[in-house]
Structure formats: structure tokens, C-alpha cells
Amino acid sequence: MRCRIVGAPVQDGAGRMGCEMGPSALRTAGLTGMLSGLGHAVEDMGAVQPIPVRRVVHGNLALKALPEISAWTSAIAEAAYAASDDAMPIFLGGDHSISAGTVSGLARRAAETGRPLFVLWLDAHPDFHTLDTTASGNLHGVPLAYASGQPGFHGYFPDLPAAVDPSRICTMGLRSVDPAERRAQNEAGVTVHDMRAIDEHGIAPLLRAFLGRVSAEAGLLHVSLDVDFLDPSIAPAVGTTVPGGATFREAHLIMEMLSDSGLVSSLDLVELNPFLDERGRTATLMVDLTASLMGRRIMDRPTRSHSGSF
After folding, report:
1. What residues are labeled active site?
2. pTM of this prediction exceeds 0.70
3. Residue 259 exposed, middle or buried by CB count within 10 Å (0-12, 13-18, 19+)
4. Which candidate, 201, 219, 210, 203, places its Cα nearest to that of 264?
5. I need a labelling partner for 302 at 20 to 30 A (CA). Which of 50, 63, 222, 252 fits?
């Protein structure tokens, strides 16, 4: 497969500093070498540069860095559209606000090719707030609402050339959902599998059903993997830790099933904050999960020492 690596060093959407170092940490953890070693052609596109910030004023005074995130979204959307031309883009965040740009750019590409875009959102949070409903004001909590065409973004974020149909979105691993997001997801028709659903039914049947829908519609599948989807005991390098996340094996099973499906056309790796990591263990895990997605099998997995070094 032809892969394009795109860095999006955004930290303006998060509540603490450090995510802008995420792309460098993922590269240092061996992402490019791993992809090449699995036989993929890799092109590193470097880092997206934001467009000039324009003045944007909103009635919700809690909003933080709205002009900056709007500018980043425009630039990332253009980069995502370009990188998805006859290649699989892998976007390195940065906080999850980058997905306002990645998903909207990919939706534009999908619309032009006449294929529906599906989104698998692996996250402790649904990120389905609008600019009006967010109480924290941190804009890494709005990208999925924006990219699926929810109201309230016009004039503040870039206009959408194409929106993702909410019925083609599956959020998995949720365990921290605000009431406004819960209502919005239900009304929009998003498929929601929280951690209780995973505990009760297991990941495999839930994911298999969603992948069946993608296949039936000959869809493109974008996977957005947030570090806080994982349990903080195995992935501490995130500023929004929520106990009770996916285990090591659950996460790898998802990636292995996605690999087997052959449906994934693009990937986000977001919310890695190396400042909070323990000797690179979270960055290494994110690279290993990507390896499972890109074709590494259980029998081929390397043995690592307990030192946590690369």
C-alpha cells in the first residue's frame, strides 16, 4: 500500500500543552520504518502549516482558541484532501481537533469518488459537542459534530464541501459523555458502543456488524484512534485519562479485524502527549497498534524488554 504520513502538530484544542510533540514522538517510535518493513511505500509529507488566523467571535465565552482551530481546520482539510489522492493518509496529531480537518477533507475526496465515507471513532469521548454546547470550551471536543454537519458551525469553522452522514459513524469505547453529546448523537443516528456494550457483547461482534455495513455500501473507512480510547494503565501519555478503557488485546483485536477487512482508507493517531509518557511506552504502543492495522500478525510481533526503550 502507498502511505502518506501527515503531521498535524496542534495543541490549541486541548486543555494542556504537549500534543504538538505527538507527531515527532510517533516518528521517533519508528512509525515510518515499521510501515516500510511491512512492505508499504511511505512518503512523509512533513507538517501541515496553518493558514493565517482571522478574527472569529462567538457568543459562547467559554470557547478557547476558536480562531486558531478554525485556521488549522482549513489547512488540515486541504492537506487531507491532497494526501488521500491514490494513497492511504496517516495523520499524526496533535489533539483530536485535527479530525475536524482530516474527516472533512476525506469526506470531500469520498464525495468526488462517489463512495460513502464511514468513520470509526475510537475514543473515551464522542467529541460531538457544538460550539454552543461545549462547557469546557476545549475544541478537541467538537470535530465529529462539525464533520457530520451538525448546526452552529457556519461562519466560525470552514464551510463543509461534504459532510459525513451521522448514520455512517460508529463511536466505540465511550465512557465519558456529556448529556448534550448523548442527546445529539442519539438524534443524529450515530452508532454508539460504550465500554458497557463492549463488556457485555465483546468487541468482535460489534465491530463486525459495522464493518459489514461499510462493505455492503462499498464505503471508504476512516479510523480515528485517540490515546484515551486505551486504558491509562497501558497508555498514560494523554491529558484526558478516563479509567476503564480498552485493554492491550482488545485494541490489537480491533486493529487486526480492521486489517483483515481491507476496508480502512485513512487513519488518525491523536492526543499523544509525550510530556506525560513513560519512556515512550504510549508512543510505542500506538505504533504497534498501527502495525496490526497495516498487516503485522501476532506471530510476527517483536518481543520488547521491560525497559520501555525503543
Report:
1. 96, 123, 125, 127, 140, 226, 228, 271
2. yes
3. middle
4. 219
5. 222
Using DSSP's 3-state secondary structure scheme, residue 115 falls into: coil
The gap from C-alpha 275 to its chain's centroid, in whole angstroms, comes to: 20
For residue 301, the model assigns a pLDDT of 66
Residues 272 and 21: their CA atoms lie apart, in Å, by: 8
Query: Is residue 148 assigned to a domain?
Result: yes
Q: Which candidate, 69, 240, 247, places its Cα nearest to that of 173?
A: 247
Flag whether 110 is in a domain: yes
**Is residue 34 assigned to a domain?**
yes
CATH of the domain at 294: 3.40.800.10
Q: Tell me if 112 is assigned to some domain.
A: yes
Cα pseudo-dihedral 198, 203, 206, 207, rounded to 10: 140
Amino acid at 230: L
| pLDDT, tens only, 115-142 | 999 999 999 999 999 999 999 999 999 9
- Domain count along the chain: 1
pLDDT digit string, tens, across residues 243-302 = 999 999 999 999 999 999 999 999 999 999 999 999 999 999 999 999 999 999 876 767
